[in-house]
Structure formats: C-alpha cells, structure tokens
Amino acid sequence: MDVVVLIARILFVAIFLASGIGHLKATEAMAGYAAYKKVPAPRLSVIASGVLMIVGAVSVLFGIWGDLGSLLLMVAIAPIPFLMHRYWAEEGEARMNEQVQFNKTVSLVGGALALFALFVLVPELGLTVTEPLFTV
C-alpha cells in the first residue's frame, strides 16, 4: 500500500510543481493577469504562491514533513478561488468557465487537507524521508 500512497502523492503534486515553476518563470505575465483580477500585490503574490507551491510539492513528494508541505499547498491555493475565479462577478460563458475553475481549485484545497490528515494520522506511512512534523 505504501507504493499506492507514493503514486497518489506524485500525481497530486505534479500540478503544483508545474504551476510553481510557471509562476517563477513567467512572473511578469502572471502578475499582469493577477493585477487584472485585482489581486493585492500581484507580483509578490505570484512569486510567493510559486515558492509555496514548489516547496510544498517537494515536501509532499519526498515525504519530508509531508504534513507541513500539505499545509503550504493549502496556504498557496486556498485564496485562488476567491481572488482569481470569482464566477459570481461574471456573465455567460465566462461565468461558467470561472465556476469550473473555482470548483476545481476548491477540490485541490480539499485534497491537500486530506493529505495533511493522512500524514498526521498515519505517521508510519511508508516511503517518506521524515516523520510528520505535527502529531495528534
């Protein structure tokens, strides 16, 4: 079962590694879009979220305080639905597209929360480098 959990972690973090790298490689373009969406401190927000995504994803991937990594991912993505995918402020097709993105991102927040619980509740979870940082 340890291999199944490892595969799940790999699949889960792939989007965060790609997004985090994208945030750092295309900071100016993403900051421009974030400014258009009225995100406060858009450049800083893009850089900070990119770093949080990369650090959190690497932590979860290798199981180096994976519980903390899961929380970092949550911190990075929890504001996104409310800042970037405000479907209630849109009309027509844009509203539908933003609502889909809103729901997907909320689901990722839920996944990060579930992964946090898994790391904390199953400290002997195999194929990790460290034990969880948090305990119950």
Characterize the structure shown.
This protein has one domain. It has six helices and no strands. Helix 1 packs antiparallel against helix 3, helix 2 packs across helix 3 and helix 3 packs antiparallel against helix 4. The longest helix is centred in the last third of the chain and has 30 residues. The chain starts with a helix and ends in a 15-residue tail after the last helix. The mean pLDDT is 96.
Q: What's the shape?
A: elongated
**Domain module tally:** 1
Stretches with pLDDT under 50, minimum 5 residues: none
The helix-and-strand class reads mainly alpha
**Assembly state (oligomeric):** single chain
Beta-strand percentage?
under 5%
* CA(first)-CA(last) distance: 22 Å
Helix content: over 70%
Give a quick account of the main beta sheet: strands, pairing sense, barrel closure.
none
Query: What's the helix count?
Result: 6
- What letter string, H or E per element, gives the SSE order? HHHHHH
Using only CA atoms, what is the Rg?
Answer: 16 Å
Mean pLDDT: 96
Extended strand count = 0
